């Protein structure tokens, strides 16, 4: 069997070709490729289900419960779903993507003023060169640039309560385009309550009270990652984003109408299934590692990648929603009897785990150690999960 992976530098498929390998925060992640007639083989998905979220905040809990059951089916069998008819306004989507286009069209010097290396949380701009330094070049190259913003208790747009002494700003913004912050702030403020509503649906799907996971998501680690992929020749082997599974509770991605697609999802039979753009404010969503752990493997953190062979520019906007940095992940339900899922659980707060994975993703960058020089306290993981040092 031919290799199916966009591999992470030192990882590859096993010799017998029965596993796909992917990036897993410094550990060799792999998924079994099941073949017809082999033990454990099942007919896997060939498309991404579309779910209508009109009733996500319906006053009748039984209506919400029916939606939760539909969501559970997609999360168990695919790990991906489309969220249609969401509370997000199409006009807001248009304004946000217009801001993305304008920012990424700025000269690299102006974008780099807001470099991710200047913040404790590695937020800000990551250039094409940064990505190449982190993830390789040539046949293993990845072609993209990005900008990340996220939770920041010092930002009055997000939070107005008391802040621990010594807290430092997590986000950084380009002075050449002050309206960029306003655009992403507006979008972020709408995504947060929508994400909390989805969290409640997952609780119902697990047979729990709607608010059962609220205690683990009081001050969630959340982030927007604006992504720009250049046009590629169809013959190019480079990926826009290497094969990976998200380390989040779940991820909500907007793919713009005029920007092509390229997102591909790995099914259990080792096939890459396309997840193209769907008109409207429709999100492409997926389960992340944290929710997979909380659900004892019932909900699947599915491997995916981006290969932009549309021949045009591609912009996308993932929103990652994760528990509090102080949270310790333990299953909230029992493992299903027929599940072969096994996870390693630790008492270490996920904020530290998150930072370790984040720093590993940038381990090859020649100036990554710049982060170690930042003076950041780790005394309170509930609020401040960036240590400022390389694990």
TrEMBL record:
The keyword Zinc does not apply. Residues 219-323 form the Fe2OG dioxygenase domain. It comes from the Eukaryota. One of its GO terms (molecular function) is metal ion binding. Keywords: Iron, Metal-binding, Oxidoreductase. InterPro entries: DIOX_N, IPNS-like_FE2OG_OXY, IPNS-like_sf, Iron_ascorbate_oxido_reductase, Oxoglu/Fe-dep_dioxygenase_dom. It holds the Pfam family DIOX_N. Gene3D superfamilies: B-lactam Antibiotic, Isopenicillin N Synthase, Chain. Belongs to the iron/ascorbate-dependent oxidoreductase family. This is Fe2OG dioxygenase domain-containing protein. The lineage of its organism: Eukaryota, Fungi, Dikarya, Basidiomycota, Agaricomycotina.
């Amino acid at each position: 069997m031919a290799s199916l992976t966009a591999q992470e530098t030192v990882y590859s498929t096993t010799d017998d070709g029965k596993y796909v390998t992917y990036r897993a925060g410094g550990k060799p992640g792999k998924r079994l490729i099941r073949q017809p007639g082999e033990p454990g083989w099942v007919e896997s998905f060939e498309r991404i289900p579309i779910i209508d979220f009109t009733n996500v905040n319906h006053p009748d809990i039984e209506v919400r419960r029916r939606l939760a059951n539909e969501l559970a089916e997609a999360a168990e069998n695919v790990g991906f779903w489309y969220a249609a008819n969401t509370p997000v306004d199409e006009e807001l989507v248009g304004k946000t993507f217009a801001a993305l286009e304008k920012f990424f069209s700025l000269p690299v010097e102006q974008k780099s003023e807001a470099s991710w290396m200047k913040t404790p949380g590695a937020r800000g701009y990551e250039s094409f060169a940064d990505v190449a330094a982190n993830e390789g070049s040539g046949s293993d190259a990845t072609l993209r640039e990005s900008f990340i913003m996220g939770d920041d208790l010092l930002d009055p747009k997000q939070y107005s309560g008391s802040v621990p002494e010594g807290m430092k700003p997590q986000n950084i913004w380009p002075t050449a385009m002050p309206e960029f912050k306003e655009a992403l702030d507006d979008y972020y403020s709408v995504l947060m309550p929508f994400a909390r509503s989805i969290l409640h649906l997952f609780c119902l799907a697990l047979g729990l009270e709607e608010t059962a996971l609220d205690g683990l998501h009081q001050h969630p680690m959340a982030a927007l990652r604006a992504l720009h992929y250049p046009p590629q020749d169809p013959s190019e082997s480079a990926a826009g984003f290497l094969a990976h599974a998200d380390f989040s509770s779940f991820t909500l991605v907007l793919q713009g109408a005029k920007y092509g697609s390229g997102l591909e999802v790995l099914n259990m039979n080792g096939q890459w299934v396309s997840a193209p753009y769907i008109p409207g404010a429709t999100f492409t969503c997926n389960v992340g590692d944290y929710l997979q752990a909380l659900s004892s493997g019932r909900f699947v953190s599915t491997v995916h990648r981006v290969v932009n062979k549309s021949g045009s520019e591609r912009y996308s906007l993932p929103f990652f929603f994760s528990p509090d940095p102080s949270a310790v992940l333990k299953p909230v339900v029992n493992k299903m009897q027929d599940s072969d899922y096994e996870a390693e659980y630790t008492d270490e707060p996920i904020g530290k785990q998150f930072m370790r994975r984040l720093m590993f993703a940038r381990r090859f960058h020649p100036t990554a150690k710049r982060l170690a020089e930042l003076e950041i306290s780790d005394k309170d993981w509930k609020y401040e999960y960036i240590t400022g040092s390389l694990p």
